[in-house]
Design brief:
Gyrase A, domain 2; 13 strands; Isoleucyl-tRNA Synthetase, Domain 1; four-stranded parallel sheet; four-stranded antiparallel sheet; binds arginine; 20 helices; about 10% strand; about 50% helix; alpha/beta
Length: about 575
């Protein structure tokens, strides 16, 4: 690994070996006592225990070696064997110039793994809501992060396209348009190629059908029958269903476009349907399926469970299959077609039990070998200022498209109105996306958070607007320097503490990425971006960069600015945020 801290950890490990001690992992961590050093090594205590030796003795042996190495400056021991160290300017400058050549060395590659990420999870014919926003934002960012660390990642949207809602929609359409050819059982010709409904119709019809089903048992039963017949691919229903999917998916794609979210696979629950029979038979042959109250179920409980897990219902008593079965069949399909090392699910925390049951059946039945990781990455709820799930002003359900519109009208206030209309529109779209993403990715994935439009659209503070504004300023600084033909080939020195702060911050990139990846949460990257941007803004506010008279110094400032700009761009890109040139 090529980056600074990792290389030094290796070096330190060798030094420790030379001193006669064996240790498997050496970590240098940012110092908790910056007055004593920039980084510290805290492993001496363990060595002292293993080798039954005085920690200060071991520490001083190591320090003696470190002092001979010109990468380090000011190495000292504090307390019982805590080694503090700082880096020499020369080492830092050299490293910065390597990063300047190739920004990619300042990250760490993980093992090359094949990962499928199941995220997005919108439901056909139902408006996407804010929960779908979180899945899309977090899933997309995790996908980009994993790719940045060298994994091969396939994103699958896993459309909800096969359950009762489909039956409800079709039933309601049948009630309204009984004359449609889709409902004529004697019809054998081709069905029309144009969809008979728009997405808008669907979003209006679904809530009506859903309410009716709750109030009217007969209606519900009709919907059940239609769902069943659809799943058996009855000709007319199936043809209409395809048209419904078409109308809905084009709208879903438009929304995801606005969020910089895209998928390699547009599969849905329906795609796993063809494997359901195989899966059920397979599990039966394994002897895992038994009958309970008319349903076919599989036990998933384990002895050491604190809360007893109910059996997973594979086939309901009415013969239809459950959401669980669809997910098992989808895993079956994914294993067969892609043979991944890991499958990740970015879904609301409230589905944790569902996935626990599904995963257990997959492992228990050998559908997935033990060494393949099925990983549920639950996320918390986005709440309104009242701490309750986000609602519209009049108390209705906040759809994703409502939310995007609201944020957009808020950020429009920040835009330079002298730019031409088309550019203003582009800027407000980019800003809207930035606000939504940064706010959504800033809290730890699994916690609930409060979405406050004004706060998250502010020019100052931890917001997407602040980051984009600051990054844009870096870019325009670099552009002006280019216009003046100022050279910015390399970092030539460290002339102030501002630069030192920036450089030390830049050393953290690999560990921030690694931590985010290991914990599958983007908050570390979000915090880091804010901190790095602040260190740069301090330099910007305190030093005249473009008007610096000494060309060597100016070159250094500009070079460092370029590294920060590229780093910001790289990290924002992981979050799914584009940078702006003007606003
Ligand atoms: N469509 C589901 C929902 O809206 C989410 C799907 C999550 N993915 C999965 N494989 N079950 O709640």
């Amino acid at each position: 690994m090529n980056n600074f801290i990792y290389k030094l950890e290796d070096k330190l490990k060798n030094i420790i070996k030379e001193c006669g001690y064996d240790t498997d992992k050496v970590s240098l961590v940012t110092s908790s006592r910056p007055d004593l050093g920039e980084y510290q090594y805290n492993g001496v205590m363990n060595l002292a225990k293993t080798y039954k030796k005085n920690p200060n003795l071991i520490a001083s042996e190591i320090v003696e070696h470190l002092n001979k190495d010109n990468t380090f400056s000011n190495v000292n021991v504090a307390g019982p064997g805590f080694i503090n160290l700082s880096f020499s300017d020369e080492a830092l400058i050299n490293y910065m110039n390597e990063v300047k050549e190739d920004i990619n060395i300042n990250k760490c590659a993980s093992k090359k793994k094949k990962i499928i990420i199941d995220y997005g999870g919108p439901n056909v014919a139902k408006a996407l809501h804010v929960g779908h926003l979180r899945s899309a934002n977090i899933g997309e960012a995790l996908k980009r992060l994993a790719r940045c660390l060298d994994a091969e990642v396939i994103g699958d949207v896993h459309l909800g396209d096969w359950g009762r809602p489909m039956g409800l929609i079709i039933l309601e359409l049948k009630k309204r348009h009984p004359e449609w050819v889709y409902f004529d059982e004697s019809y054998t010709g081709e069905y029309p190629s144009v969809a008979p409904v728009t997405n808008k119709d669907l979003e209006e019809i679904y809530p009506i059908a859903s309410t009716k089903a709750k109030e009217d048992e007969e209606y519900l039963e009709e919907a059940r029958i239609i769902t069943y017949k659809l799943q058996k691919k009855e000709r007319g229903y199936f043809a209409l269903w395809k048209k419904i999917i078409e109308a809905s998916v084009s709208n879903i794609k438009e929304l995801y476009d606005k969020l910089n979210v895209s998928f390699e696979l547009w599969n849905g629950e329906s795609d796993a349907d063809k494997y359901i029979e195989d899966v059920v038979n397979y599990l039966k042959e394994k002897g895992l399926v038994y009958e309970s109250e008319g349903a076919q179920v599989v036990d998933v409980k384990k002895e050491d469970d604190k809360v007893e897990l109910p059996p997973l219902i594979l086939v309901k008593s009415n013969g239809s299959v459950s959401y669980e079965t669809t997910d098992i069949a989808t895993i079956w399909e994914r294993m067969k077609e892609y043979n991944p090392d890991e499958i990740w699910y970015v879904v609301d925390n409230r589905q944790a039990l569902h996935f626990e049951q599904v995963f257990r059946v997959c492992y228990k039945g050998g559908i997935v070998p033990e060494d393949i990781k099925l990983d549920f990455m639950g996320f918390g709820t986005m709440n309104g200022k009242d701490g309750k799930p986000f609602k519209t002003r009049d108390g209705g359900v906040m759809t994703l498209s409502n939310l995007i519109d609201n944020v957009k009208s808020e950020v429009e206030k920040k835009i330079n109105k002298t730019l031409d209309k088309e550019e203003q529109e582009k800027i407000s779209n980019t800003l809207t996306c930035a606000v939504l993403k940064y706010a959504d990715l800033l809290p730890n994935r699994s916690t609930d958070y409060i979405f406050d439009i004004e706060k998250f659209s502010d020019m100052n503070g931890k917001t997407g607007v602040y980051l984009l504004y600051s990054t844009m300023r870096m870019k325009s600084l670099l552009d002006k320097a280019k216009d003046n033909n100022y050279s910015m080939n390399k970092v030539t020195g460290i002339y102030s503490t501002y630069e030192k702060d920036i450089i030390l911050k830049l050393l953290e990139v690999p560990s921030v990425l690694e931590k985010s990846f290991n914990e599958r949460t983007l908050n570390y990257i979000c915090d880091y971006l804010y901190e790095l941007t602040n260190t740069f803004n301090s330099l910007y506010a305190s030093v005249k960069i473009l008007t610096e008279e000494d060309p060597i110094k100016r070159e250094s400032y500009l070079s460092l600015s370029e590294i920060v700009f590229k780093t910001n761009k790289m990290l924002l890109n992981i979050l799914g945020i584009d940078v702006l040139e003007r606003m």
